[in-house]
Amino acid sequence: MSTRQVFIGTLHVALAFLLLGVAAYYCFQRLPLAALDRALQRLEGKRRELLEQKDRLVMQNLRFDAALNNMSPALCMFDGNHELVVCNANYAKMYGLDEDVIKPGTHFLRIMQRRIASGLETERTADEYLHDLLESMVDDRPVTKVSELGDGRVIAIKQRRLPDGGWVSTHEDITQYRRIEAQVVHLARHDALTDLPNRLHLRERLEEATANARKGENLAVLCLDLDRFKEINDTLGHASGDAMLKAVGDRLRGCLGPRDLVARLSADEFAIMQLSGEQPFAATSLAGELIVALNQPFDVLGQPVMVAASIGIAVSSDDDKNADKLLKSADLALHRAKAEGGSTYRFFEAAMDADMQERCKLQFDLRKALANGEFELHYQPVVNLARNEICGLEALLRWHHPERNKVSPGTFIPVAEETGLILPIGEWALRQACADAVKWPEHIKVAVNLSPAQFKSPNLVQMVFAALAASGLPAHRLELEITESVLLHDNDATIATLHQLRSLGVRIAMDDFGTGYSSLGYLRSFPFDKIKIDRCFVSDLSNDNTGSHAILRAVAHLGSSLGMATTAEGVETQEQVDKVRAEGCTEMQGYFFSPPRPIHEIERLFLQPGERTANAA
User: How far is Cα 232 from Cα 226, in angstroms, rounded to an integer?
Assistant: First the structure.
């Protein structure tokens, strides 16, 4: 029987005795009937008041029960004798307690014994649990602790001491919160796609390993980058690319020792920390094994795919075991491996760091060069072999550095393309070339090279139109030269851009023909106005290379059949002039006639009124 039931029963008994007592009193006193009636009325009023109090008490008890049993946490209260005063349904459900165990007056030790018997509590006896609980409550401040049950659930318990020596506590199941918390912690240190450790995790482990490494115990860091991975995304789609990265991660794991760690750093870049083996021999062996393993075909969503990798290696020393420096050094070695053709590995050398510092300085200077007016266009004549006259001039970019003097285009153009600076620089070159060419004789065209980065810009056609409009140069006098690398990626979009340029009236030339992957296919997909035969075929003519003769003859015949001009590049001797003319080329360009020259020299030497002959016979 609950406390409230006892209270209500007592109230009824008291009311009954009160009525009997009053009636007896009036009977013995033989009071007048009117007085007795008034007394009974007063008594009835007291009865109604008591009944109203009873109803309010019942309602309060119902509300208390509803609140207690609808609480999210489990709740229990024990008195100073360590006996249960009250608990809610969630408490019984949380610990699987039957009705006979949760009755008011049940001792705490009995409840704990039942929990131990069910396997939920496995660490201590019931007496030890009670002792620890009382020891933790030194005052009336709330105490919070976390307990893990035998079935794996995690319970947060908050308890507070009561004035009589008892306590009240709430119990909340935080198992799901703990799982989510663990998942968040895992995701913060692991890659979401491959589940490999990420850069943060790798760096933590690397710092720990370098700090604990003994003298003579060196470790290696290998940075690995997939060669031409973008082509997989472009041709097969990003879903296949993601599946490929997962497969690569699995294959890398299979090559590692038990103490090694592989991490994914970015899109297709991975890093390995190698702790096992004697260095640098262990790193050399692992790099070779990785290259062989990745060269085996992958099954990507049911389709066989081939991939290769470049690897950079840095090995710590007794004097230098800095984690950040190791990662940086391995990355520099990776850049060298990729620059040398890929699918190989290279160890870090001190000169690589110096080269990178120089490259960074070059990038910084390049950003200021355009604003400071340090660029200049030189022009190299293109000679019509049938008429022996200049028919065009190719614009070539030159950089006059305030400290380095002349910087080779082969040095700064790749940096400009890598940083995106080629876009503003290329636009300046196009505008300047058109502005220069409008002053030349009408039969002379100007050729300007376009980089692959410029073709990725959505504003290329508008830029060309604006340059022509600003200069007043007729569109047919502008010739835009592209290499086959422009057509390698997103071929349909590139061809569409070429047709838009052609619709403006400009001429399109394919530069360095014969050095790409599928030149004939490109000639079929777009009607170029000119084919420029790469200098490597021309240079071999002096050695009577029959293969070069045959290629030159075939390209010249192909151009003639398709209505395209053919320009032989790199002509440096009279013998080469005679041979390219004999093989059917329509134009030549090279140092035999003139190297690239500044605009004032070109105008003085070749563009005087009435002077059209090239004297190249």
Answer: 11
Q: How many domains, the chain?
A: 4
Domain assignment present for 353? no
Q: Indicate the SS3 state at residue 472.
A: coil
Q: What is the CATH number of the domain that holds 268?
A: 3.30.70.270
**210: number of CA atoms within 13 Å, CB side?**
21
Q: Among 300, 317, 348, which residue terminates a domain?
A: 348
Bridge partners of residue 299, in order along the sequence? 304
**Residue where a domain terminates, one of 178, 213, 237:** 178
Share of the chain above pLDDT 90, in %: 48
Q: Are residues 148 and 262 in the same domain?
A: no
Task: Determine the structural domain holding residue 82 and report its residue range.
Answer: 74-178
Within a domain: 309: yes
Contacts of 285 (CB under 8 A, 6+ apart): 277
Question: What predicted TM-score, i.e. pTM, was given to this entire model?
Answer: 0.58
Measure the CA–CA gap between 443 and 475, rounded to whole angstroms.
Answer: 13
Tokens 């409840």 label which residue? Answer: 111
The enclosing domain of 547 has a CATH number of 3.20.20.450
DSSP of 283-344, one letter per residue? HHHHHHHHHHHHTS-EEETTEEE--EEEEEEEE--SS---HHHHHHHHHHHHHHHHHTTSSS
In the sheet that holds 143-148, the strands lie side by side as 84-87, 74-78, 167-173, 154-161, 143-148
Same domain, 230 and 296: yes
Best CA proximity match to 220, nearest among 234, 209, 229, 208? 209
Rg (CA), the chain: 45
Angle of CA points 241, 244, 249, to nearest 5°: 130
Q: 516 vs 215, 413, 482, 550, 593, CA distance in Å?
A: 52, 19, 12, 18, 27
One-letter identity of residue 109: L
Task: Report how far Cα 454 is from the mean position of its chain's Cα atoms.
Answer: 25
State the Cα angle at 564 between 562 and 570, rounded to 5°.
130
pLDDT tens, position by position, 467-497 = 999 999 999 999 999 987 777 665 778 888 9
For the chain, the average pLDDT equals 85
Band the pLDDT of 1: cuts 50, 70, 90: very low
Closest CA to 385 of 579, 522, 94, 211: 579
Residue 176: helix, strand or coil by DSSP?
helix
CB of 54 closer than 8 Å to CB of 8: yes
Domain co-membership, 420 together with 568? yes
C-beta separation of 347 from 562 below 8 A: no
